[in-house]
Queue: 4 jobs
Job 1
Amino acid sequence: MPPPHALLHRTVAGYRLTGYVGTGGMGEVFRAQHPGTGRLAAVKVLHRPELEARFRNEATVQAGIAHPNVAALLAVGQLDGRPALVMEWVEGQSLDDLIRRQGRLDSGQAGRIFVQVAGAVAHLHAQGVVHRDIKPSNVRIRPDGGAKVLDFGIAKGRFTPRLTQEGYIVGTGEYMAPEQFRNQVEPKSDVWALGVLLYELTTGHLPFEAANPLVLRSLISRGQYTDPRVLSPGLAPHLADLIARCLQPAPTKRPTAAELTRLVAAPNQPQALRWRPWAGALAALAVGLALVAWLLGSPGPGVPTPERLTDSDRERLEVHVLNADDDVQLRTPDGRVQTEEPFVVERDQGQPLTITIRHRGREQAFTIAPEVKGSYQCFFDP
């Protein structure tokens, strides 16, 4: 196989290769131009023959997608007997480069990018496609702020054949959902990746990081990460809420990509609180009952007062830090600090609780989900 630069000035499906861009997982990528129309394109030429079936699947999947936030497939061809894909050229920079240069993005900019990527993913899901590799390096940002999703190399469509050997998993570890480690991939797996992407956009950091793949998998499986508001105190509440919704270990508890686009587009109207035709009547009735109860000097039905709260409204949990045996502290939201294990915390029943663990000068926040009862175990990220 000739070196990439030796292929310059060759023609693929009418497009002349004018510059070498780099090497991807399956192919060499070139900048190209159509001599007749002047249209620019990105041309990917397969360099690993053993991946030809996956390469052709990429073409099949991408050919059926037409969306303003997805890079379009323009043509397919061959170069020296190797398959080649001709795709829309997206001017600009990768989202990965933007995050590295700028650090965390402000909530407004992050929201504008995220709603475009989530919209593209929602369209893919509507077409029966799971991308399986949503991450900043697969998103390109144009000079006008428009976002384009790229690289369908491991995407799975309705008619994608089985291309992965038993016991192997595909994807980028830090962005993979818990079920992907079990070879159980579904559209909600992309939603998890969207949550990781939004976390990275708004904090400049990954929620799950570890040099040891087994530790990384453990962190992801338990959904334990530092609260993004610790790293980005000015983070908009609705974006923090979206991250929490996406990074639910159980796929059934995550929203769909379509729901995400609605939630991020209307941050002041969370889905659970959106107005319904009967909401006004119920609200008026509730206000009326509360007013009558107040006038009579007694609390309304279902409205707890300090006098009516009992110990049964609170629950206790033991907290164990699995990988730290000395110099460990726990801080609760009210500012109280504990220095000896087992730590014991209290919270309102059915409510999440965020705690902060300090170990050897470093801090990490953990959110205890409402369904956790009795004992909670966490792994301090080394």
Job 2
Amino acid sequence: MPGVTHYESTFARLESALRAGAPDWLHDARRRALAEFTAQGFPTLRNEEWRFTRTHPIAERDFGLVERYTPNGVSAEALARLTFDDASCHRIVVADGHFAPDLCRLEGLPAGVRVTSLREAVASDAVLVERHLGRCADPAANPFVALNTAFLRDGVFVHVADGVELDTPVHLVFVSRAEGTVSHPRALIVAGRGARANLVESYAGTGADYWTNAVTEIVCSENASVTHCRIQREVDSAFHVASQQAQLATNSRFSTENVSLGSTLARHDIGAVLDGEGIDARLDGLYLADGRRHVDNHTFIRHAQPHCHSFELYKGILGGKARGVFNGKIYVDPGAQKTDAKQENNCILLSDDARINTNPQLEIFADDVRCTHGATVGQLDEMAVFYMRSRGVPHARARSILVYAFAAEVLERIAVEAVRERLEADLFGWLSRTLAL
């Protein structure tokens, strides 16, 4: 299969280094994951879940691995420009797949909160990590998750103990610096019973033609509350493939915003399993693309228990010859009575050549539920543009204001003010470039 042999040989070459210091259960998981990836290979258009997204630009290149961390190439100031600048946030950084201690800011964490590298957590919190790592993101279900797991070396581990409230946001930063390389960043986030956490996850780069293959697993225990924002701001020549999976327990609260602004090809698989009664889950997203960029969002919400609520809103803005994909599925188990689930995907096309393939889905196996879904695709209302121009607003400015109003419903839900302000500025900057073409 195209590309598979390269990663098999890379694994064989690095296996002794991967195994050094790793427990047997972790290396066994790596080997099983490599076997899964070898069996599945890179997905093609024949795969139903990938029929609108071509992965051959990734499969046909032999991306290399950065084998060790070097503390140069990006400063803390440059990192703030790449992501957002808020000195009040705790920050943990992974560069080229390796923990970067010189760029972290972890002083003042409250008692009961542990934020560290995944490599260190495997050694110091082995029981907790083994219990949760790989349980939400299944390598058998996704070849990119399998490849990430096969090369799992480092990443981020966040644990908020039972009853602890972490109000100050923790910023998880993943940055790529080396051209022609792949990194497999991993994040494991565990919120204990009654815990509360606010998390921001950023992806950015200073290199070119690199590939980020990321996996994030989020565990919300009983009565826990997790607010999460994921921002993808890779360089325009990068490839970004990511899987974010959440496991939610009884009476937990979980909200996530997935914002995609960068990369030439972006694929996000976002999932949540509501495995307890009384859960509230919200999955929102905003994606922008211009030129010939391609962005694909696949979401999956499984209602496994009764009396749960989920709400999902994804909005896309596409210009140039960009291509967008939204595939959202809500699955209701036979016993999940009294489910209340809503899903909506809206997209604005700023040019005649932009395209979106949207496919909202419901699979319901319970008979006492309230579930809705819908999708809209269109262009800006020219009557609204004319109305604003008649009152002295320039044409480009009028269109920009209307597009911002469209996106604001997602942006306004972002809890961290510095993140929200940065994304608003990014949106207006993107619109000024796109609408000027």
Job 3
Amino acid sequence: MTSMDKRHQEGLEIQLNDFAPTVRKQALEELVMMEKAGMIKNPAPTEVANMHCHTFYSFNAYHFSPSGLAWLARKNGYALMGKVDFDVLDGIEEFLHACDRVGVRGSAAIETRVFFKEFATRELNSPGEPGIYYHMGIGLTEDQAPEPGGSILADMRSRSAVRNQDMIARLNKYLYPVYINYDQDVLPMTPAGNATERHILAAYLNQADQISSNPIQFWSDKLGLPLDRAMLLYQDVPAFQNQVRSKLMKRGGPGYTLPGSNSFPSVQDFHRAVTACHGLICAAWVDGLSAGEQAMDEQLDILVSQGAAALNIIPDRNWNISDVEMRKVKVDKLYQVVDLALRMDLPLNVGTEMNTYGQKLIDDFNAPELEPVRQYFLDGAYFIYGHTVMQTCLGLGYHSSWSQTFLPTRRERNSFYTQIGKKVAPGPNGRSYLAGIVSQAGGMAHVTPGDFITKG
């Protein structure tokens, strides 16, 4: 590659994360054409997966758009990649199209917080907040939700905006003379108006740098930290941001208020929204240490009875720990929950999140601690891609009447969609393969699961 081509590639990669969809689309097409012309040499896909990556439609610490995330996977040779965003379906179609264009097996998801009434008095996966549960819907294929999903998701987005503005009102009083305006300082940081705590944090950090003559002294005072400690933290961007967020926005902080049963949608309402979108309800696990996660079998029994079909794990925070004793505890908890998920026929959805500075672009699948569970992680990634490609191309996803007829148990469905995920390539070749199988069978009314696995 010439230096001019290299600079052009770098410019296009910046454009991939532009807020304008047309700019992103054109940049991706040019990059694909450059690769086809041999001007860009990307590595062959490696069997690794990151199925839990936030984009700038909620918050991505590296500013990746859906198209930027798909190209990241292609550029680095990641075989499978999944996007997830808080409270919205924005960018799903863009991401799945981009993955098809670059030859990456892709999936899309939504994440939110819900009220889990059966655990109202126990902490789950939201630290310090009994009954509040981070929950997911995976395997989504469209930006628009059919009813009742559309109304439920609109309510979720509205509640989020109210919570954000209430937090800002409290923090503006505490941080004066540093203050921000939601419409002017926060929303412009988002492509579609879906702001998160992390956008609010970034806005306050920006304002402190602009308004205060000595930002380190300002934060030392507001966070109650010795000046030398604040100075050291300030030089470590991820640690400093986490400290500010923890001190100001989490329990005990001036911006925090304890959520209640009406702060978030119920588990059941969120399930209705995900099911309306032909997605899969996905439970979420942190590290097995909270009271609610020490009763993980009870938790999953309830969620499975309500339709949960998978379990999300963020592996890196369960083994990549400097404290040797805590690492042993958390790795053991990781193995325990993987074993529980397998016994309950729940495929695994794993990833790194990418919504905090310093988080990895991909899990270290070669880490000794992950070796015993590596294949289960990969099988889960193939499973969710298998559902996604069948739903997108043929409408024969996990919850279809076709699937319920031919694959009545979760174990049968898990096996089938995992095999499809491995067999069907992304892009036009995969679509042609699936269309050809249906044609050989004499149409949709006659095709069976075995046709997809044994033919072609």
Job 4
Amino acid sequence: MRRPYTRAGERDSLAAMSQPLESIPDDAPPLAGLRVVDLTQYEAGPSATQILAWLGADVIKIEPPGGEPQRRLVGGDATRDSIVFVLFNQCKRSVTLDLTTDAGRAHLRELLRDADVMAENFAQGTLAKLGLSVETLLAEHPRLVVASVRGYAAGGPWSEFKSLDFVGQATGGAMSVTGFPDGPPVRLGVTIADSGAGLHLAVGILAAIVRRARTGRGGRVQVSLQDTVVSLMRNALAPTYVNGLAAERTGSAYVNSVPSDIFPCHPGGPNDYLYMLLSSTQHWEGLLRAIGREDLRDDPRFARQSARNRHPEETKAVVRAWTMQQPKLAAMKRLAAFGVPCGAVLDTAELLTSEHLRACGMIVDHTHPQWGALRVPGCPIRIDGFTPHLTPAPAAGAHTEEVLAELRGRK
């Protein structure tokens, strides 16, 4: 397990962020020397601290006795933690503390004395009930960055409402533009509200650390699920600015650039599809060359984008007749060779075995003591001279004695 870089008898992560410490080698991870006390659970918060851990921060995960509830969800049982917990808590250390007790809160306060960041996603008011309000923590630790993620932003009438990812998708607008025109709104299959909020929170934390390097003062960083999705909706808001109406659902098609859509491929399985998005005359002409239909270049139905938009079904039929004879990956490679933006629809099993993702290091081999050999998503952030070393998500409380011993050693 990676240990935090320290100078003997001293730890000054403010200096570590602004100038090199002799105890931190030049080839150390980018966030070496940064200590994060992580009180978050489930996905939104842990996804933020996962990014920091991947990049070298010492993330100390605080869990209740027995571990956080996420350990017992998808695939979790008495013998192993859930696979979702495993994927969101790599490279962290786990300490179990009962924060409802004086002793648990005292240990937390000791940890915060040397921490750069505390991350939390408790319900509104929970920290205050524990005597650990943000105001109290910042008064005790002025250099601390307190990072919080909620369902809704503070200051609005919904600020105390409960929320989860799919609720954030609904109230942030994503569901309203997802689905087909004749059907109801549809949630996305990926958790953009939770992990999106985590990504924004990680950026906010690092910005607060940079500000602290100038001012010597920490402070609070806040994100919400709803705000995150609204931010991701900026492109989808365009029709409302143009015509004053709510954006419509269009399925997989991009109606302003026919034949941009999803197309079936051979042999016709549930995910045998190819998506293409054409945005220029060059893309259309490349498509015609790739599929051997250059004879259509001067056809008045297809010669201009405006004409193709008026004949969507005829235009798509030309493409569909070709894709239905092609395996999706072969079709993707053929079209890409002619400069056509497109992509095979990869299912979850194909992602884990993707030749490209493995070659570029996004899907990596990993061993977990309970799950055994796994292929898992790695860190999507690439920084020259640095390759993340993934350590397994820890067992509940695996580092309690180790971390408490570190605290005793600093007294």
